[in-house]
Amino acid sequence: MNMPRLWRAVALFLALCVRATAADCTVVHQGSSQDVLFVGTVLTSEGPLTPGHILVQSGKIARMGNDAACQAIGEASVVECKRSVISPGFINTHEHIDCSTINPFPTTGTLYDHRHEWRVGLNDRPMLPAPVNGSETDAIKWGELRHIFSGTTSIVGNHMAPGLARNLDFVSGLEDGLESPVDTYAVFPLDDAPGIVRKGDCDYGPNPIDQKTVKGLHRYIGHVAEGIGAEAQNEFRCLSDINYDTRPLSSGGGRSTDIIAPNVGLVHALGLSEADFDLVAERNATVVWSPRSNVALYGKTLNVTYLLEAGITVALGTDWLPSGSATMGREALCGLSATHNSYGRTLESKTLWEMMTINGAKVAGFDAMLGSIEVGKLADIVIFGGDNIKDPFSQAIYAAEEDIELVMRGGKVLVASHSLKHLTAGACESAAFGHVSKTICVEDELGNTYKDFEASLDGVYPAILPGVPPNEPSCDPIR
């Protein structure tokens, strides 16, 4: 039997087996204040807390525990979740959110060795153009909606729309409760956007990143070694060894630097060797993993189990719609199957969930306020319906979009199931998520109803994605 096909079937079963036909959370007491007490299975890095109690006050988690003491809540509304799981919102640390109305690239069978091949046609390889479909501003809003609807509350995406997801790389996009400094997101750390590749030296563009600049940043999240082979690995050499190339170019640049430090997150890092990752681990730098784009464009992804065993903090990121995943859940499913098919290893659901929550917060440098359900942190909370009692982490990761019962950002409800609509406030409307109707509250942020905004985009790639997203890029490793 074809093992990749068998594993895809197993992964699909995991995704489908957590679907619920009815809401599992209900408001058992309607309070007179904006405070909310959630009672149910709460996901933590120490394991599921059952029964767990979370008291949300003024946009933050005021109390949290597994005893009934939290029920002394005065005028709070009480939400009881019998089979659902309560999780921190997902954190997507790698997006190009302005490309959210572009359809996925068509499958051509072409594999690339470096991103500049498909970007600019290097080595006479076919280019994959990705022009923004319509208004860039609308595309950004649409992409943030897609992530919110699937349980993501924070994004590092190089662009932003106010009021929707938290944008961790923009001061004006942090939303209530978070304060600067913010992340610095770099697509071309070596100033190589024209399509410059090198091997044996660092003669890239005239304005590469340098050690002094990175030391002064909160977080530097940069695309490094996106590809396979010596040219991709050379990028890491030029950013990790100050003695690798000491000869400057007259036009600027040319010298190597060393930026590998705890405040640096490496996006992709596909071209790194195990010895390179040992250095990343030694320096306490982090990695953002985007397996679907890796597989779709380059035919393989990195052996993430090596990174985890080396002690590297790994976060998950969807990359972008043309070659990546439309949602964090689909990216996790790809990571699960690609790791098994390429390396014969199985990632535990809790490990993947941490990549989507607390690890994302650590990579972005906001783990003091985001990424886990703890007293004092912001109430970025998502409730996933289902009945996967044996593995509540899988229930959160692989829940069908129509089974998401609540998306809350800083105590503000953005999405609510029918049974939880009494928790909403402000301008809200009903929207169909497959066979389920939900209440969404995004009109204040959009300046328009969701229905009218959707109609204005004239049939672009959907923001609501029950089931498998259409034309999803391949996650079948062939290298």
TrEMBL record:
Keywords: Hydrolase, Signal. GO terms for molecular function: hydrolase activity, acting on carbon-nitrogen (but not peptide) bonds. The keyword Transmembrane helix does not apply. Pfam families: Amidohydro_1. InterPro entries: Amidohydro-rel, Metal-dep_hydrolase_composite, Metal_Hydrolase, MTA/SAH_deaminase. Residues 1-22 form the signal peptide. Residues 264-413 form the Amidohydrolase-related domain. This is Amidohydrolase-related domain-containing protein. It comes from Clonostachys byssicola.
